[in-house]
Amino acid sequence: MTSPPILQVDELSVKYATSRGPLTALDRVSFAIPQGRALGLVGESGSGKSTVLLALLGLLGPEATVAARSARFRDADLFGHGAAAVRGDRIGVVFQDAAAALNPALTVGLQVAEPLLVHRRLSRSAAMRRAIELLGEVGVRRPGEVARCYPHQLSGGMKQRALIAMALSCEPDLLLLDEPTTALDVTIEAQILDLLEALRSRRGLSMLFVSHNLGIVERICDELAVLYAGRVVEQGPTEAIFARPQHPYTKGLLAAVPRVQRDRMTRLAPIPGGLPDLTQPQEGCGFRSRCPFSVAACVLPQTLRPGAGTTLVRCHRSAELTEEAWPAATEPAAARRPDTGVRIIEGERLTKTFRLGGFLRRLRFDGGFPLLRPARELRAVDGVSLTIRPGEILGVVGESGSGKSTLARLILRLLDADGGTLRYKSMPVPRKPDREFRRRAQIVFQNPESSLNPRKRVGQILARPLSLFGGSGGEDPERHIERLLTLVRLSASYSDRFPHQLSGGEKQRVSIARAMASEPEILVCDEPVSALDVSVQAAILNLFADLRDRLGVAYLFISHDISVIAHLADRVLVMYGGAAVEEGKLDEVLHPPYHPYTEALLSAVPLVGVRERASQRIRLPVEAMEPGKGCRFAPRCPRRIGALCDEVPPPVREPTPDHRIACHIPIAELESMEPVLVRRGS
Amino acid sequence: MVAVFILLAMTGPWIAPFPFDQFDMRARFDPPGGLHWFGTDEFGRDVFSRVLAGAPYSLIMGFGATAISLAVGVPLGLAAAYYRGLAGELVMRAVDVMISIPPILLGLLILAVTEPSLWKTIVAVGIVYIPIMTRIARSVALGLLVEDFIEAARARGETAGYILFREILPNAWPPIIVETSLRVTFAILLGSALSFLGLGAQPPLSEWGLMIAGSRPFIEQAPWIGLAPGLALCVLLIAINLLGEGLREFLDPRLVEGGRA
C-alpha cells in the first residue's frame, strides 16, 4: 500500500443539462485505486455507477459537464491534453453488452489487434499474432480459428472473453469493467470471474469494477464504494462493509438480498421509495426519505467521515447505529394451507420441438425437382413432467436455452405441446383451453417495459380481465381496480397513469395486479424479478409470498438466480438442455445427493456471504459438442463416467420419494459428494 | 397550407368568378389579367374558376384513395402478421407481386377493363396502394407481436380480433399515420396522371390532370391553361408533404416517450 495509487480521483462531479434544470449525476466522488487492487462501485440503477466510468473515459456526451479537482492516472491528468492516448493505451475497458461492443462486420482477431495497430503501431501480421496470443490467454480454445470468426459466430461468453482480450491488448495497468458478466449465464459468469481474478494475480492489474451484483463484488473487490444518488455513502474494505455495514443504505441493500442459507419463511426487507429527484439540489442526506433511522438533523449537509475501522461513512448517526439492523419487514407470514391432495397442474412428459428455418430455406432443387429437406429440429422441452399443488411454489432453474420459458408457455397452452399431457385439476386441458382455464392460470413476465401496453392507462389494463371474466359478485369495476392496486401496494391514483409514467418495480406490480384480476389459482412467473434492482426485487418477492399465503395462489416460478428460488420455492425443478435433470424439495436439491449440473450451478452462483466455497469451484467447459443420445449434460459434465453417458439416456433415480435425479452415477456416490453449501443449522 | 386548399375546395363554387363550365367564345385564349386571373382556355372558360373547381377532385382523390388503401391494407397487414405461416405468406407474396407492377400500369390495368369515371379512379388508386399499407402494418405489427403484453392477452384467451385492433393497432398508428400523409400525395399525383391519360375523370369535369391533358395542343399559344393546374398540383403536394413531415416530428418523440423497449 506504500506505492502511489494508480488512479486517483478527487471530487469528480458530473452534471447533465435537462429540460427541468441541471441534474447532478455525480456529486464530488473521490477514490483511489492502489496498484494491483480492485475497487468495486455498487448501487442501484440510477446511482451513478456507470457515469463514473464513462466520465473517466471522456465518453459522456456534450450535454454533460464533467468537473474534478483532479483525476490522475499515474502522472497523467485524465482530463488534460493527450488524455485520449493514455486512456486507450494504459486503461482497458470492458462493457456489459459484448454483442453491442463488438463490430459485427470485422473479425474478432482484427478487433483485438486494432488497439495494437493504433497505439503500438505494430505491423498487421505482428498485431494479429499478438491478438491470437491474447485470445489464448483469456481462455479461448483454438484462438487461431476464433480470431478469424465474426462476432455472430461466437457465444456470449466467448464474445466477453474477446472483449477482455481487446481491453488487455496494450497491456494496460488498469481495467475498467462495467457489469462485465450481467448478460451471461451463471456458469459462464463464474468462468469470466475466475479469469479476471487470474489476470489480476498474474499481471498485477488494477480494476475498477462496476456492478449491481453484491455477490460478485464481494468475490472480486478488495475495496468498495457504495454510491447513492451520485454520492459515495460508504467506502472501505469489502470484508468490513459486508460484515458490518455502517450506512443505513448499505444495511438496506444487504438486507434486501435473498440468501440461500436464510430461513425461507423470513421476509426480505425491501427499501421503500425510490431515488430522489436529482434535479433538486440536495443539501442533506439524499437517502433520508427512505431511511428508517432518519432524524431532523439529516437535512443538514453530510460529510464522508471516518466510521468504524478504516471505513468512510456519510451518515452523522453511523456511530449510534452500529448495532441497529435494518428493520425486518413487519407482516409475519400466515400459516400454510394443508395439503388437500388437489393437483392444480399436472404435466406429463411435455415435449416441444421447434423447426428451424422456413419453408423456402428448406426447398432444394436437386436434379430439377423441388425437394423439401428435413428441417433442423430443436428440442426445447424434452419430456418434462411436473405437478403443482395449491399454494405451492415450484421453482424452475436453468441457464438460458434450457427450455424454462418454453415450459412456462406449454403449461399455459400458449404454445402447443408436441407430446405429453396437461391436466388442470385432473381434467385434461384441450388445445384451445376453455375460459375457466384461461381465468385460473395467469402469467407474469420478466420485462416490465414490454408487459404493459404503452397506449393504455393502468385502469384500462386492469379493467380488461375484469370485463372479460366478470368481476367478483357484481362489485363496481372501479372499486375492484382500486382493490387490485391495493393488493399490489399501489395507491388508487395509479389507475390514471400510463405505463411510461411508472418505474420498473411499479410496472411489475401492475403486471401482477393484471394477472391477479381474474383470481387465478396458478401464476406462471417467467423471471419476474430479473430486471429489477435488489431493493425493488425484495418488495416484489415479498408480494409473491403474501399472495401465496393470503390467497393460496400456486406458482411456477422461473429464475436463473438460485438464491431467489431458494428464498421462495417449496420444490425445485432443475432444467438443462430442455430436460429435467433433477426435481425435489428445495432442501433436497440444495444438498447432496444432487445432479452434477445442480452442483455446478450452486458452485457458480455468486452468493452474498458465502465466501468459503472458493476451495471447490466447479467450472463447466463451454459446450463444444452436440449432445448425443444419452445424457444432455454429458458433454460438459465434470463427473462424466464414460461413453455410457453419451449413448444411454440416464435412469431416473429416487433417493427419497418425490426427489428425482436423472443421472448414471449411483445414488451412493452422489450422496458422498462434498456439499457446495453448508447445510443450514449444522 | 393544406387547410387553405381544403377551404378553397369547399368554398370554390362561391368565390369563383365564373362557373367552371361557362363557355365564352369571345374570350378564348385570354392571357391572365384582371378579369380572368389565370386567363381562359380554348372555349373561353375561366382557368382560375376551373382550378378552384378542380381542387375538390384532387383532394377527394388523394384522401379517398388513401382511405381505401388504409381500410383494406391495414387489417390485411395486421392479419398477415398474426397468422404467420401459410396464410400470411400467401398474402405477402400477393403483395410482392402487386408492388412489382408499376403503379400507373396497375392503375391502367384496373381502369382499362371498365368505363372510366372519377370514383373508379379513386378505387383504382386505392387498390394500387393497398399492398404498401399492408406491408407497413405488417412490419409494425410483427415488432409488437413479440411484446409481453400481447402474450398476456393471449393468456387471457383474447380473440385475434381483440389483440389486433385493441392491443396492436393503437401502438401501430404513429408510423401508419405518417406513411398515410405521404401516401396522399402519391395518390393525388397518380390520380391526376390517370386522368391525364384519359382514364380518370371525364370532360367537362375540371380535374387538374384532365385540364393539363386538354391544354397540351395549346401549350405554345396559351401556356397558362396547363400551367395553372400544374402549379396548383405542385403547391398542394408540397403542402401535404410538409404536413407529413410535421406529423412525423410530432409523433416520433411520443414514440420514444411511450417507453417501448
Task: Describe this protein's structure.
The complex is a heterodimer of chains A (682) and B (261). By secondary structure, chain A is of the alpha/beta class. Chain A has three domains: 7-232, P-loop containing nucleotide triphosphate hydrolases (Rossmann fold, 3-Layer(aba) Sandwich); 345-355 and 373-571, 3-Layer(aba) Sandwich (Rossmann fold), CATH 3.40.50.300; 591-671, no CATH class. Chain A contains 23 helices and 26 strands. Chain A has an eight-stranded mixed β-sheet with strand order 6-7-8-3-9-10-12-11, sandwiched between helices. In chain A, strands 20-21-22-17-23-24-26-25 form an eight-stranded mixed β-sheet, sandwiched between helices. In chain A, strands 2-1-4-5 form a four-stranded antiparallel β-sheet, with helices on one face. Chain A is globular. The mean pLDDT of chain A is 82. By secondary structure, chain B is an all-alpha fold. Chain B has one domain: MetI-like fold, CATH 1.10.3720. In chain B, 73% of the residues lie in helices and 0% in strands. Chain B has nine helices and no strands. The two termini of chain B are 37 Å apart. The A-B interface holds A 359, 409, 412, 414, 433, 435, 438-439, 441-443, 445-447, 449-456, 464-465, 468-469, 498-500, 511, 514-515, 518 and B 89, 147-149, 151-152, 154-158, 167, 170-171, 257-261.
Summarize the structure.
The complex is a heterodimer of chains A (682) and B (261). Chain A is of the alpha/beta class and 682 residues long.
Largest interface: A-B, 33 and 19 residues
Radius of gyration over C-alpha positions of chain A, nearest whole angstrom = 27 Å
Q: Percent helix among the residues of chain A?
A: 25-40%
Count, helices of chain A? 23
Q: Could you name the CATH topology of chain B? A: MetI-like fold
Overall residue-averaged pLDDT value of chain A? 82
- In total, the number of strands of chain B is 0
Distance between the termini of chain B: 37 Å
**CATH class category of the largest domain in chain A:** Alpha Beta
CATH H-tier superfamily of the largest domain in chain A: P-loop containing nucleotide triphosphate hydrolases
Total separate domains of chain B: 1
Instruction: Spell the H/E element sequence of chain B.
Output: HHHHHHHHH
Helix content of chain B: over 70%
| Biggest sheet layout of chain B | none
Q: What is the CATH level 1 assignment of chain B? A: Mainly Alpha
Put simply, the count of helices of chain B is 9
Strand line-up of the largest beta sheet of chain A: 6-7-8-3-9-10-12-11
Q: What is the name of the CATH topology of the largest domain in chain A?
A: Rossmann fold
**Relative strand content of chain B:** under 5%
> Helix- and strand-based class of chain B?
mainly alpha
Distance N to C terminus of chain A: 39 Å
